[in-house]
Amino acid sequence: MSGQLSFSIDERSGVVHVTGAGLWTPEQVERHFRSLDLALRTVRRKHGLARTLVDLREAAVQTAETAQMMKDATARIYQPGDRAAAICATQLLAMQIRRAAQVHQLATFIDHDAALNWLLSDAPARDALQSMRANA
User: Fold this and answer.
1) For residue 21, which phi and psi values (nearest 5 degrees)?
2) Rounded distance, CA 72 to CA 74, Å?
3) CB 94: neighbour CB atoms within 10 A?
4) Alpha carbon distance 44, 135 (integer Å)
5) Nearby residues of 85 by Cβ (< 8 Å), 6 or more positions away
């Protein structure tokens, strides 16, 4: 299964929309997070904080090497006020994201609208995680 990682920025809201599909190579992950770092800096200058909506509904559970790279990169590029909502098709992927993503305000979801609503709100991350577990 070939992998794909991309993102776009909604200039009006400042939400960074990330899409991931398949299984990613270490090279893809490195390029992606290097570009994402620059995008998050730009968004923070304009909006004060970064909000990232990560759509992983077509992504596979990643290798240990890739998960470690995600952990290192997210620890480096995300700041304490930033928020990230990840939409995951499976509990296993959601668990991997919760372990790998070093984002202070992170929540995983199965539903796009619920993820976006949380991302744009001030609700604590733990409430969103509990709602995903209740809905799974």
Assistant:
1) -140, 150
2) 6
3) 23
4) 32
5) 51, 52, 53, 54, 106, 107, 108, 109, 115, 116, 118, 119, 128
Q: What tokens appear for 38 in the block?
A: 């620059």
Q: Distance of CA 51 to CAs 72, 121, 135, Å?
A: 19, 10, 23
Q: What's the whole-model pTM score? A: 0.89
Instruction: At 80, list the tokens.
Output: 């304490």
User: What amino acid occupies position 12?
Assistant: R
pLDDT digits 0-9 by tens, 30-58: 999 999 999 999 999 999 999 999 999 99
Residue 71 CB-half CA count within 13 A: 11
Residues 6+ apart with CB under 8 A from 22: 1, 2, 3, 4, 58, 59, 60
Tokens 């995903």 found at: 132
- Cα 85 from Cα 15, distance rounded (Å): 11
Do 53 and 21 contact (CB within 8 A), yes or no? no
Q: In whole angstroms, what is the distance from residue 84 CA to residue 119 CA?
A: 7
